[in-house]
Amino acid sequence: MAVVMASAMLTGCALDAPFGDGGEGSLSITTEINGETSNSTRAVPDNMQELRDQCVIFIENKRGVMRKFKGVDNLPASISLGSGDYVCNAWTGDSVSASFSSKFYRGQQNFTINQDQNTSLLVKCNIANVVVSVDPSALEIGLSDLKITFTTTKGELAFDKENIPVAKGYFMTPSPEVKEKDAEAYERNTTVNVKVEGTQQDGSAYTKAYEIKNVQRAHEYRVSLSKEPGQITDGGALIQLVIKDIPIIEDTVDVFAAPNIRGIGFDIEEPVNQIVSKEMRIGVRAFFGIKTATMTLGQSFNNTGLEGKLDLLDADVRNTLTAKGINVVTGTKAQDAETGETVEELYVTISGNYIATLPNREDLFDITFDATDAHDQLNSRTLTFYNNQAAAPDADPVMMDDPTASSDPMTILATKVTLTGMLNEPTLADYGVEYREAGASDWTRVSVKATNSRRKAIAKAKGTAFSLTLTGLKPATTYEYRAYGDDFAGKSVRTFTTEGKFEIPNSSFEEWNTYSAKTMLGTKDVVIPWGVGDKSVSFFGSGNEGSATANITLTNKSTNMVHSGTYSAKLESKSALGMLAAGNLFIGEYVRTDMTDGVLSLGRPYNGSHPTKLRVWVNYRPGGDVSVKQGNEGYIDDMVSGGTDQGQIYVALSVGPVDIRTKESDRKLFNPDDDQILAYGQITWKEAFGPDGQLKMIEIPFTYNERAHSKVPTHLIVTSCASKFGDFFSGSSSSVMYLDDMELIYE
Asked: What is the pLDDT of residues 627-682, one digit of tens each?
């Protein structure tokens, strides 16, 4: 443990709503999915529910992704955010290279959060495709066997007499940002080639080609054909090809969050194998409270003792269900892990004993769950299961699970993701997953046999479960993925979004200021590593407030040794009133002085990501002639009076701030095994580190414990100290540590 301590005149630090630029405000999001319409007709996409479920919404600021949601139904009514500037991104649909049916929508909106104010945000997901079509009048031009083909570098779409009157084609093209990186590639990939083919009246073949350059998203390029005036011959016709560039007229479809209904530990959208009867748990969650909740048993349940529509909020109905082996818990309040908002939950647990009483049938059992919230927003999901192999649906040779449904927060990280799936056809020579960035055209194929994977037999429908890990991904990026096996490519395309990196504020220690603090000897100016003089908003703190009583500054800016910029942080242990005060720097706040001791809060809120290590540039020179306070010898592991001091840096991720109290009668120091801690790492120096007069890079790995697989970290802790045992008034008054450029590394 690395802290600063003092005597009656000195006191110091001991180890022990999303972060913004100031106080907190709130955000309310309305999402609109915009489809093609005329000026007077409102068009609701046929697959609106699918678009709602697929929609990925994330909020980011200069520090990275702060909030992420999958599915519009999972958007809370209010989101707490620190004041500052943000951007909200959203996308949904299928990013297929070329298609007559698959559309991709995306939107982006900048916004500002002000302290104690609610910000209402409208995010419009507009069509992000390039749209192509053919004017039906082309069929009257006199060409038989007419065929018009649109081709890009990524795909091809062909129109003929059957689909010209009704079809539109959709191409994916690069985003405009790509043009700045590679203008030539951008031009090549935003060019559509048009080829008209047919047979003229005299039986001769007709071919004409045209090139459309610099096509734009959300524009429709319509081909019209007409006879060129004055050039018509008896046997055939010269044909004029006209391209109309039509900005897509859009109308809006309002999409609001509705109650979420999900299977816990299983995908409610897929039939569940109950050949071996096992428990199933269904959860209902609503941000506006649950107004109604029902379950309707399908015809397969007739004559089983339970049938029809059942009101889950009726106490008598719940008692009846309990007697049958179905337990319903209502009125549960919980805090949403993603937003911190309070939600109401309802749980239905269908026991394996009840399922075992059902007749052995050759068709599916189905239960439909319906729920409305206080705003009368309705959601519905149907659970299906079977207890006879004859009822098992035909499965794809390979199937992938949804990683966003995992209860393990470490399933999706900044640069890697663990995917699980099911192999249903054991004769496949090769199988695995294909993935790509959302909006990209090409898939990257990763074989189970060529990656860090595992297979194990599981009684889940039929087949063998497997998992694999994709690495080298980009942080804060949405990816699409699907299963493959030999020549099979899955039709079901799922998405996940990697975690965003967190940039430590003032990590280069360029910003310094002072604030006023009351001490036993009057008000003193205290040095703080932050741009404004306010310790409550500073990301970093130190024991300077404790040592200010004796007009001593233990931690301050320095130009002596710098890795980048103008300043580094210099931590000096000093002697005051015959006792040691250890130079230190930590993420958190020096709360107050308790008589002669310090009360601290370690950790500041951050984006919940999972870094692999902390990188920092350090120079450490331990002092000699160590003094160990009498009575504290039992707390000092391997340092003796008269020996050499030790320096320490430790890092941690926690589920909240960690309180530290140095007062002996009420002492609470940092404990890496505490239930709040999800990851920990440390480095201790017992000798000098770094060349004379220079900083040297050190990387401290995070070791994640078992709790990290069930809880999301909310706070980052970094503590540095020139005298490791400063908690116990022990160390050398000549120890010095320099720090610069702290950085979280994601691998």
From this structure: 887 777 777 878 888 899 999 999 999 999 998 876 666 777 889 999 999 999 99
DSSP letter at 350 equals: E
User: If you count them, how many residues does the chain have?
Assistant: 747
Question: Rounded to an integer, what distance in angstroms lies between the CA atom of residue 595 and that of residue 663?
Answer: 9
Q: How many CB atoms lie within 10 A of CB 376?
A: 10
Task: Please give the model's pTM, rounded to 2 decimal places.
Answer: 0.56
Dihedral sign for Cα 709, 710, 716, 721, please: negative
Which residues, at least 6 apart from 499, have a Cβ–Cβ distance to it below 8 Å?
65, 412, 413, 414, 475, 476, 607, 608, 609, 610, 746
Contact 332, 271 (CB under 8 A): no
- Give me the DSSP letters along 543-592: THHHHGGGT--SEEEESSS-SSSS-EEEEE-EEETTEEE--EEEEEEEEE
Give the CA distances from residue 541 to residues 12, 351, 535, 636, 715, in Å, rounded to whole numbers and listed in that order.
11, 52, 7, 25, 15
Contact (CB, 8 A) for 146 and 197: yes
Q: Could you give the CA distance from residue 548 to residue 687 in angstroms, rounded to a whole number?
A: 29
Report pLDDT digits (tens) over 102-125. Answer: 888 888 888 888 777 777 777 777
Task: Report d(CA 195, CA 206) in Å as an integer.
Answer: 10
Place of tokens 């599915």: 71
Helix/strand/coil (H/E/C) assignment for every residue in 125-168: EEECCEEEEECHHHHHCCCEEEEEEEECCCCEEEEECCCCCCCC
Taking Cα atoms as reference points, which of 668, 528, 661 lies closest to residue 599?
661
- CA 83 to each of CA 86, 243, 277: distance values in angstroms, whole numbers, following the listed order: 9, 48, 51
